[in-house]
Specification:
The protein is mainly alpha-helical and about 325 residues long. The protein has a single domain (about 5-260), classed as Hypothetical protein af1432, CATH 1.10.3210.10. It is about 60% helix and about 0% strand. The protein is built from 16 helices and no strands. Helix 8 packs across helix 9 (about 175-200), helix 9 (about 175-200) runs antiparallel to helix 11 (about 220-235) and helix 10 crosses helix 12 (about 245-260). The longest helix is centred in the middle third of the chain and has 25 residues, at about 175-200.
Length: about 325
């Protein structure tokens, strides 16, 4: 028996019957022959493929809410991803579900996010003339763009969990559904933390009806949401929050949209970011030869707009600014000595 087979056997001994078992996976897009020396289950292997990808490394330089903030303690897409992963891990472990599957989905869920967060998403939507959705782009990253166009060849459960972390489609696995809810728990709460740090919100401004249910502090709110989800899911046999806590979370999210996500101070630079990405998009459409060498083959089978979109969506905030500066801002003249 290989190490992988022993790990799969142990899953059946310790996990709930509701869990997604690694040896029952629907498989990968392209079949891979099992190796005798395998020491990881398929979901553990997916975690490693995602964490070692280029798209994952770029998350550390992509906006969460505040564009290119000055200060070391604001969240980025990377820190957000890690927080989602830990919350989802806590919930799945407590419920006897497959923590490895939840971790893989959490690590990959935001790989398709644009530079400058949702401002970049809006900019590419305008450029394409149709909705650009980061969850769909995340799936495209793992299916098509990583490994020089070969993709990561992830399992079906991880792929659909990534796609369904937001939007109309809900993952079929309980682990994928937990990541979707963990994403909401993470971003609403850590965005409060960042908004307070930025001086555009005071913690005592959160409506008392919400604070009464969820708590007054960052840790209290997360603890309430996590423990309520564990308890409610156990009782219902399906991923859910209790009605009172679910309403409080929705009210808190609405409050954050009103006070932070649409706040003119927090979003004051977004129009510049959108204009910059739009101009970069138009430039590369007109000058496809300026695309990096590894994007050139893609032009022949994906077309101009899709290739340019993939290139810009993959940029970090700083890289987008640097490319804009390189292309559109005159360089300083100096005398050659």
């Amino acid at each position: 028996m290989t190490v992988r087979e022993e790990l799969e056997r142990q899953e059946h001994l310790r996990l709930s019957p509701l869990a997604s078992f690694a040896d029952a996976s629907a498989g990968r897009m392209r079949y891979e022959e099992p190796r005798e020396e395998d020491v990881r289950t398929c979901y553990q292997r997916d975690i490693d493929r995602i964490v070692h990808s280029k798209a994952f490394r770029r998350l550390m330089h992509k906006t969460q809410v505040f564009l290119r903030p000055e200060g070391d303690h604001y969240r980025t897409r990377m820190t957000h991803t890690l927080e989602v992963s830990r919350i989802a891990g806590t919930i799945t472990r407590a419920l006897g579900l497959n923590e490895d599957l939840a971790q893989a989905v959490a690590m990959g869920h935001d790989l398709g996010h644009t530079p400058f967060g949702h401002a970049g998403e809006a900019a590419l939507t305008a450029c394409l003339g149709k909705p650009f959705r980061h969850n769909e782009q995340s799936l495209r990253v793992v299916d098509c763009l990583e490994r020089d166009g070969r993709g990561l060849n992830l399992t079906q459960e991880v792929r659909l969990g990534i796609l369904g972390h937001t939007g109309d489609y809900w993952p079929e696995t309980m682990e994928g559904q937990i990541v979707r809810r963990s994403d909401q728990i993470a971003y609403v709460n850590h965005d409060i933390d960042d908004a307070v740090r930025a001086g555009i919100l005071c913690s005592d401004q959160i409506p008392r009806a919400i604070a009464h249910v969820l708590g007054d502090t960052h840790s209290a709110r997360i603890n309430t949401l996590v423990t309520d989800m564990i308890r409610s899911t156990r009782e219902a046999g399906a991923v859910c929050l209790s009605p009172v806590v679910d309403k409080a979370l929705k009210d808190l999210r609405a409050f954050m949209f009103e006070r932070v996500y649409r706040n003119p101070v927090a979003k004051g630079e977004e129009s510049k970011a959108k204009a910059m990405l739009a101009r970069l998009f138009d430039y590369y459409i007109a000058h496809p030869e300026a695309l990096p060498e590894d994007f050139q083959p893609q032009l022949s089978f994906d077309g101009m707009e899709r290739t340019v979109c993939d290139y810009i969506a993959g940029m970090t905030d700083n890289y987008a600014v640097d490319k804009y500066t390189e292309i559109f801002i005159p360089a300083g003249w100096h005398v050659r000595g």
